[in-house]
Amino acid sequence: MTTTYDPFVPAGASGEGGYGGRRRAEEATWVEDQHWGQQQQGVPAGHWTEDPRWSGDARPAPGRPAYAPTSGYPVSGAPLQDAPREQPARGSWVRPAVAGLVAVLIVVAAWQAYRIEGMTRDNQSLTSGLSDERNRTDQLEKQLAGVFDPEAVSSKALPSVFRVRAGDFTGTAFSVGDKASGGKANLITNYHVVAEIYSDGGRKVSLERGSTQIDATIVKVNKGKDLALLQAGQGIAPLGTSEGQVKPGQQVVVVGAPLGLDDTVTSGVISAYRPGDPDGTTIQFDAAINPGNSGGPLLNADHQVVGVATAKAKDAEGIGLAIPIKTACDTFSVC
After folding, report:
1. Three-state SS for 69?
2. Can you tell me the distance from the alpha carbon of 312 to that of 256, in angstroms, rounded to the nearest whole number?
3. Residue 25 near residue 54 (C-beta atoms within 8 A)
4. Cα dist from 37 to 40, 42, 66, whole Å
5. Nearest alpha carbon to residue 256 among 184, 199, 194, 188
6. Distance from chain centroid for Cα 14
7. Which of 52, 113, 179, 270 has the least C-beta neighbours within 10 A?
8. Which residues are tagged catalytic?
């Protein structure tokens, strides 16, 4: 295979220039023939080329091969340049980057979801703990509400309790209910406290507490139940009354004026509830009472009157008797 070249001849060039171009073409043809012959002898194609040292009419020196290594210069005689590297396609790095970013976001989202789930569990545990604490607090409040506090009971009851002076006899009376009209107050006491005046036809008694003195009138009496109803000429804060039945062991406070000593407080427990007594249902208690306590209120831990202190056993200690407040309320219909 032969290739002929028709080199470019500039305008105005001499004939020698054209001749020189033909000679180089013939020489190139000769080199190509040599190259073909080498291929015929088993030399791989591409390993034979024109010697860059040829120039003009020069010929290869005897014994010098008319080829040069492919790592040398090309046939044209210009220095070899590295083949251009293949540039990555535009956007070829974007997909891996996006995929990596998506993977990171998935990991972050999974971590956040895990943390949120953990926080939810913690919140549920905290809520459950708070609920348990609230229940305990409620139970404690209920227990504390049932704790007996004589000071609190007596401090609330004292303003409603008075010493009754009926002639030469003294006892105790306390205000109940709100049925008294005209700004007056109803008070309960024992009949035996006012019996001497009442039997003599008198109806006026005096209510005393410290420096306070209030006139009162005997309105009704029940000799069989040893009860009397007084009405004061002014309003007095009433005490609440209990409708329930007392139980043994229940703690109580007694407020009265033993031996004329007003604002006296003692405490104890219900010893027994005796509904079958000949004189009517009786409450037995162990709080200390003395003459002058008659007609005073017996109060429970809820600041409610449960009985009317009436008597104590002679030649004995810790045995007091009271009339249930329900009996007094039903007798006079004032509670």
Report:
1. coil
2. 14
3. no
4. 5, 9, 12
5. 188
6. 109
7. 113
8. 192, 226, 294
